[in-house]
Amino acid sequence: MDSATSEPRTTSAPRTTSETRTPLDASADNGLKIVIVGGFGAGKTTMVRSVSEIRPLNTEETMTRAGEAVDDVSGVRGKTATTVAFDFGRITLDSHNVLYLFGAPGQERFWFLWDRLFSGTLGAVVLVDTRRIDDSWYAIDRLEKHGTPFIVACNDFGGPAFTPEQIREALDLDPHVPLVTCDARSRESSKLVLITLVEHIRALYADLSRAPRQELV
Amino acid sequence: MSRPGRDDAPDRLYTLTQGRSRSGPDNPFDLVTLVVAECDPVPGMQSEHAAILRLTGRPAAVVEIAAELELPVSITRILLSDLLAAGRVSARHPRKAAVPDPDILEQVLVGLRNL
């Protein structure tokens, strides 16, 4: 079957031309993942944009409720399929390592996707809008259960200031989980959030490697 | 009948993959597997395959290819596995380990600090 007649929409989109794409080094061979989770409007895409070397791109995945990729046409029509869109950006770390940042919705109804889409992620940033702290409970609960290392970053929207203690209490946050305040619009601030996460991951695994053997993930 | 997602998408997508939509556990492509073209597009090639080869002259992640083609990730994986089976692309998979390699974590930190 020839699909050449169904012209991909991309042909007219200027960003798909090779002139506007920023290619990776030919030597790049190791893709890494960090996920930024947050409620609607918490600033996920803003943070991705702040640190990404490419304009954030958007893609989607279609899944059935069972969490399986859809099977066939009849499967799509018979079951409740959900399309989830997510943004991502990219940071070239060195000639081999490329870090991809994914902005992902933290709401309960999207989590059935996570195991498939984000397996193997280094860790996660839970981006919190302190005006809507409740939005983050579910994400934190799932990350804890899944054993994914994470930190919490409060995006400063200039609302009423809460002390770190108040936020920890509101989120019922484990004392070992780093909590930082950030401005997702700022490249430097977003960069510090990522550094805090990776330092946390490093410390976590260093502790584990000293401790008796433990199952991870 | 209610259709999932964007209204006209499913039929077009299944046409692209000859009806297949499962990119199941046997599909080796991770979201961040880096794909590199091993040949140039040739006339008569499925247009999406040709587009992938044009995008991967230099390494590109599966998720980037999906975004550029405006196709769902699962469909992109199927197209990629066809190209891989035909030897037209190669795949650089992420180094997976139960525990991240401390050297890699250090490299990530150095890279981030140098931003």
UniProtKB/TrEMBL annotation, chain B:
Q: Which InterPro entries match?
A: DUF742 (IPR007995)
Q: Which residues form the signal peptide?
A: none
Query: Which Pfam families does the record associate with it?
Result: DUF742
Q: Where is the composition biased (Basic and acidic residues)?
A: 1-11
Q: Where is this region: Disordered?
A: 1-27
Task: State the coiled-coil residue ranges.
Answer: none
User: What is the name of this protein?
Assistant: DUF742 domain-containing protein
